Amino acid sequence: MQQRSLETRKLLLTSAYELLERDPSGRLTTTALAEHAHVSIGTVYRYFPDVEAVLDELRSTTVHAITTSLSTAIGRAMDQSAEEAMVTVVESLTSAFEKHAAVLRVTYTSEEVEFGFAWAEIEGPLRPLGRIIPARLRPDLDDAALDDLVFIVMGATASLCSRIALLRPRRSDRDRMIAMTARMLVAAIDAA
Question: Which superkingdom, per the lineage (predicted)?
């Protein structure tokens, strides 16, 4: 019975995600969710009290997935040159934002995405890892100056990657934008 409950919950979350991908406006309703998942409205309410609870669960899963993806990328970047490391990080974060675009667009307003506020939940646990590249490039900085630099670089990285992933003009070259972003971030660290 417990396995079936887990499967039903997963079905509802998958169905909600599919609906959000189809309709980026985020007008998800419990009725549409029940219809798409081929379950009764009562089943939806058995697992989630309202649509906001579904969105909260999707957001939590998204934050975890993005954090995991970025942690893995930072691990890969440890033995790379500064620019290669930054490309690895920017590519990974941009890809993670793209993969979870449906949830990010609904959960955060375009202004929040554009200015990096959506990043706050992801940044906290990653701050120690976020120190690795700047500390390697700027061993001359004391801890306070390094913390300030990491704070600025992480925010800039999030904002730039979310812009590439979610707001990029159609004709723009994604790879060129990622490379340009990496160079800009390395230059900013060097100049600090």
Answer: Bacteria
DSSP 141: S
**pLDDT score recorded for residue 142:** 95
- How does residue 117 score in pLDDT terms, banded at 50, 70 and 90? low
Which residue type does 6 have? L
pLDDT band at 2 (very low <50, low <70, confident <90, very high): confident
pLDDT digits (tens, 9 = 90+) for 80-97: 999 999 999 999 999 999
Task: Note the pLDDT of residue 43.
Answer: 95
2.10.260, 1.10.10, 1.10.357, 3.30.519: CATH of 58-191: 1.10.357
The class level of CATH for 2-49 reads: mainly alpha
Alpha carbons 35 and 110: distance in angstroms, whole number: 29
Cα 75 to the chain's mean position, in Å? 17
End-to-end CA distance of the chain: 58
Cα distances from 178 to residues 42, 46, 120, 182, 189, in angstroms, run: 46, 44, 21, 6, 17
**Whole-angstrom distance, CA of residue 5 vs CA of residue 57:** 16
Predicted TM-score (pTM) of the model is 0.85
Joined tokens for residue 41: 């409205």
Domain boundaries, the chain: 2-49, 58-191
